[in-house]
Specification:
alpha/beta, Rossmann fold, 18 strands, binds nicotinamide-adenine-dinucleotide, Gfo/Idh/MocA family oxidoreductase, Gfo/Idh/MocA-like_OxRdtase_N, oxidoreductase, oxidoreductase activity
Length: 400
């Protein structure tokens, strides 16, 4: 497949490193950037045959099959409009929109044009995430009760992120979009998110948006999603997830502690990993960043989806749901209350209740808890099914 990439900044280079780094049949064919110098530099660095400073010309290049949007947040909608008019499949970086409404327009544009809208949510494609999600789907950890995702770093690298108008917000829109979608995948994309409670503050930087936030997303089946995001964290990029199920637990650490530790006096000049603050002392490099961050699997899914006329795992619809959740988080941060999630388009189940099946101990009792105590004996906490009385029985193991 021949690809046009719009933008030549930070994420465009990550994408290009992924697409050009290994032998792939999908190749960058066209690049658009605002200035000729940047467009030409990118084209030279990645051997892209054509470069433009006009976005429509780049998209409409006759040999282009699919367009990747790697532009600042306020430009996603205009770029998608051009792709829809040109009937070119489009893959857009995160966050899809600055608001749920903007994201809904984008989703409608691609659906009306009959093109594929792939949502480039890389952290839902990391090898660790994919394996974890498979375990959840295989029922290895039972019913998911709580899924927590954290992304925290010392703040983004470009001016427009810090401008609320252009970015749509602060750490919530920038990092919360990842965390919300990670938790939503674990809990189940068909389960309706109903309410959000969020605390957000501007703790360090002189900006209008939040640089730190914590939020809870309540799902219709009783599960809870939690996001923790910050642009104030010192020490690199902290990417961690926790999933708690009725039959098991998953802990993921995707970046700072991946099993690769290195000490340096700092005499060298080498790049360590994204958002690393220092190149001396004990360091946590990442072996293959584009792979560990999910970009390789993400593009494989996207191009295969186009080729086989199926949906990718992350679509514009998913990006739109995430934006609607972020809207509710901002409302909650302002009101200090739980706020309902407004989802004008919802394609999952409307079911609210979840069925809990308790463990039977015997005909008359439920087993609440069983534990082996330090003396080796077993304690069992039971509840009488008729009277509700809770009692404890001790099993002396030497008598068993
Ligand atoms: N993990 C991820 O998936 C990830 C990581 C970083 C950034 N992003 C996303 O990628 C997008 C770009 O972020 P970035 O980090 O590459 O930023 P960046 O500032 O490094 O690059 C932004 C690109 O947009 C262009 N641009 C900015 N303002 C423009 C304007 N007014 N007209 C035309 N072009 C303009 C810049 O020239 C540059 O090519 C954002 O939506 C961001 O949220 C995603």
């Amino acid at each position: 497949m021949k690809i046009a990439i719009l933008g030549s900044g930070f994420i465009a280079r990550f994408y290009a490193d992924t697409l050009a780094g290994q032998r792939r049949k999908d190749t960058l064919h066209v690049v658009y950037s605002r200035t000729e110098a940047n467009a030409e530099k990118f084209a030279t660095d990645y051997q892209v045959p054509h470069f433009f400073t006009d976005m429509a010309q780049a998209v409409n290049h006759p040999e282009v099959d699919v367009v990747i949007i790697a532009l600042a947040n306020h430009l996603h909608l205009a770029a998608i409009e051009i792709c829809a008019q040109a009937h070119k499949h489009v893959l857009c970086t995160k966050p899809l929109g600055r608001t749920g409404e903007e994201a809904r327009l984008m989703m409608e544009l691609v659906e009306k044009a009959g093109i594929m809208g792939g949502y480039l949510e890389d952290l839902c494609y990391t090898p660790k995430f994919l394996k974890s999600l498979e375990s959840v789907k295989n029922n290895s950890i039972g019913r998911v009760l709580w899924a927590k995702s954290r992304e925290a770093h010392p703040g983004p690298h470009s001016d427009w992120f810090w401008d609320k108008e252009k970015s749509g917000g602060g750490a919530i829109i920038d990092l919360g979009c990842h965390c919300i979608e990670i938790a939503r995948n674990f809990i189940g994309k068909g389960i309706k998110p109903v309410e959000v409670m969020c605390w957000a503050a501007t703790q360090v930087h002189p900006i209008a948006a939040e640089d730190h936030a914590i939020g809870l997303v309540k799902y219709a089946n009783g599960a809870i999603g939690q996001f923790e995001v910050s642009w104030c964290f010192r020490g690199g990029m902290d990417l961690r997830d926790e999933v708690m199920g009725t039959e098991g637990t998953i802990w993921l650490n995707s970046f700072l502690r991946t099993g690769f530790e290195m000490f340096s006096t700092g005499k060298g000049t080498g790049y360590v990993a994204e958002k690393t603050e220092s190149n001396s002392g004990w360091l946590f490099p990442v072996g293959d960043e584009v792979h560990e961050l999910g970009y390789s699997h993400m593009f494989t899914d996207m191009f295969e989806a186009i080729e086989h006329h199926r949906e990718p795992s992350e679509t514009f619809y998913d990006g739109y749901v995430v934006n609607c959740l972020i809207d509710a988080a901002y409302k909650s941060a302002a009101s200090g209350s739980w706020e309902p999630v407004d989802l004008p388009v919802w394609r999952g189940t409307e079911a609210e209740a979840h069925s809990i099946s308790y463990h039977d101990y015997d005909e008359h009792h439920y087993l609440i808890k069983e534990e082996i105590l330090p003396d080796g004996n077993i304690s069992r906490i039971l509840k009488d099914k008729t009277t509700g009385v809770v009692s404890k029985i001790s099993i002396v193991t030497s008598e068993v």
